[in-house]
Amino acid sequence: MGRFRFSALKVKQEIPIPARTGVGFRLARGEYVQVVDPEGQQCGDLFAYNAEDVTEHLSAEHTRVFVDRLFPLEGQSFVTNLRRPILMLEQDHSPGIHDMLFAACDPPRYAQYGVREWHPNCAENLRTAMKALGHEVCHVPQPVNLFMQVAVLPDGRVDFRPPATSPGDWVLLKAFIDCLVVISACPQQWNPAANYRPSDLLARILIAG
Ligand SMILES: [Zn+2]
C-alpha cells in the first residue's frame, strides 16, 4: 500500500505468546496487531470477534467470497459472518503463504494421532483466552492459520507442508472495528503445521504515531 509507512507506527503493547499457548486482547478500531514468527516455521491460529457482540466474528468462508481468493492479499480485508470488514491484511512481511481451510486443532484431532493424555490445542486456547476476556465460546470458528502452508493441488487434493517462514517474519493487521483478537501458537507436533517443533509467537499492538 503506497501511502502506508510501517515506520510511522508506535508500539503500544508487546504480548508474548509462548509455544503451545494462546493469548487474547482487545484491539481498538484503527489499531494494528503485528504477529511475529520469531524462530520461523510456526503457525498461528488467529480469531477475531466484534468486541460489542461476540456473535459476530471473523469468518473464513465469508472472507473467501469477499476477496475471491483462498486468502486475502495485502490491502484486502477479512470480513465477519455479517460480511463486513473486521481486519485488514495491511502488510505481509513473510512469504505470503497462509491457510484458511484447516480447522483448529482440538482434543479429537490429537486422539486421532494416538495421543492418549491431554494435549494443548488451539480450540481450548481460544476458549481459555476468550473466557479471560469475559466470554464463553462454544463454537470454534475456522481460524486464520497464519504462516500455515496447505497447498491446493489441481486434482483437488491438499498437501500439508511446513511453514515457509524465516525467523522474524511477520504480518500486520489493522482493525476496522473494536475487536477481541485471540492468537494461538499452534501446539501441533504431529504434522507439518509447526514443522514438528512448536515454538513461540509474538504479538505487538501498534498505533499510528
Ligand atoms: Zn493448533
Walkthrough of the structure:
This protein is mainly beta. It is 12% helix and 37% strand. It contains three helices and 13 strands. The chain binds zinc ion. Residues 45, 104-105, 121-122, 186-188 line the site of zinc ion (ZN).
Provide tags for this entry.
mainly beta; 12% helix; 209 residues; 13 strands; 3 helices; single chain; binds zinc ion; five-stranded antiparallel β-sheet; 37% strand
Low-confidence segments:
none
- Count of beta strands: 13
Classify the helix fraction into a percent range: 10-25%
Strand order across the largest sheet: 1-13-3-11-7-6
Show the helix and strand layout.
Layout: E1 9-17, E2 22-27, E3 32-37, E4 44-50, E5 53-57, H1 60-67, E6 77-79, E7 85-93, H2 107-112, H3 122-132, E8 144-146, E9 149-152, E10 158-161, E11 169-175, E12 179-185, E13 201-208
Antiparallel strand pairs: 1-13, 2-12, 3-11, 3-13, 4-5, 4-8, 4-12, 6-7, 7-11, 9-10
The structure holds zinc ion.
Zinc ion (ZN) binds at residues 45, 104-105, 121-122, 186-188.
Compose a concise summary of this entry:
The chain has 209 residues and is mainly beta. The chain has helices at residues 60-67, 107-112, 122-132; strands spanning 9-17, 22-27, 32-37, 44-50, 53-57, 77-79, 85-93, 144-146, 149-152, 158-161, 169-175, 179-185, 201-208.
